[in-house]
Design goal:
globular; eight-stranded mixed beta sheet; 11 helices; TIM Barrel; alpha/beta; lipoate synthase activity
Length: 288
């Protein structure tokens, strides 16, 4: 059974004109956002500020991770026109920084890497001054697929470790803790100058010592940016919350991360991988 949600996790709803306009744009271009599909708690703040994380390759994920609200199933098609629509939406929104993520597409030989690359190129063509961050799946360890993404030169390569090693197999589906570390290391091998980023959600049963070890593991593969947020149970079918961390504990974790050499650490109860992403890329760039 989950603990009762504490006061500091209350979210201010803001469904003003920017939020409504962005929602209409997404539906008009038949685009998906992880903000909606994963029930992100920051959707009102981010959309009101005209920022969003696009989710490409459809809205059906071939995996069923026990923390994630994205729908699971077997996708039936690949939309080759999607990169251009994402680029059009980015231009219409006037974004300075865009985050592109996807469902896991284990049904595709390259896991969707080519669509990621085409999306990066399409955004750059329309918006050359807009920085592009990609939050990718692990491509089942297909490093040729990873190279396709890295060769398109995103401004940030993001792949989430999600949880500590002991809980990884229980929390994630198919993804492996050590494979995540290998992917982040390979990304640096392919393009040493591109910052890498990863995220940990806490509250699923980990200890403080395990969180710190995960930080150490990420630094060993030269990860530049770390985000740490509170796990929130999206539905009764998902993993229960074992602990709600206090904001003071998140502040402590930020300090621990900075001590370990991360260029930027975003740590707080409502922090998600793409939260304040533009500030993260600027902060990391100054430190590189």
């Amino acid at each position: 059974m989950s603990e009762r949600k504490p006061e500091w996790l209350k979210i201010k709803l803001n469904t003003g004109e920017n939020f409504k306009e962005l929602k209409r744009m997404m539906r008009g271009k038949t685009l998906h956002t992880v903000c909606e599909e994963a029930r992100c708690p920051n959707i009102y703040e981010c959309w009101a500020n005209r920022t969003a994380t696009f989710m490409i390759l459809g809205d059906l994920c071939t995996r069923a991770c026990r923390f994630c609200a994205v729908k699971t199933g077997l996708p039936t098609e690949l939309d080759l026109a999607e990169p251009e629509r994402v680029a059009e939406a980015t231009e219409q929104m006037g974004l300075r920084h865009v985050v592109v993520t996807s469902v896991a597409r284990d049904d595709l030989k390259d896991g969707g890497a080519s669509i990621f690359a085409e999306t990066i190129k399409a955004i750059r063509k329309r918006m050359p001054l807009c920085s592009v961050e990609v939050l990718i799946p692990d491509f089942l360890g297909n490093w040729d697929a990873l190279k396709v993404v890295m060769d398109a030169r995103p401004d940030i390569l993001n792949h989430n470790i999600e949880t500590v090693e002991r809980l990884s197999d229980r929390v994630r589906s198919k993804a492996k803790y050590n494979r995540t570390l290998e992917l982040l290391a390979k990304a640096k091998e392919f393009q040493p100058d591109i910052p890498t980023k990863s995220s940990i959600m806490i509250g699923v049963g980990e200890t403080m010592e395990e969180i710190l070890k995960t930080m150490d593991d990420l630094r060993r593969v030269d990860v530049d940016i770390l985000t740490i947020g509170q796990y929130l149970q999206p539905t009764p079918k998902h993993l229960p919350v074992k602990k709600f961390y206090h904001p003071d504990e998140f502040a402590q974790l930020k300090d621990e991360g900075m001590k370990r050499g991360f260029k930027h650490v975003e740590s707080g109860p409502l922090v998600r991988s793409s939260y304040h992403a533009h500030e993260q890329v600027e902060s990391a760039a100054k430190a590189l």
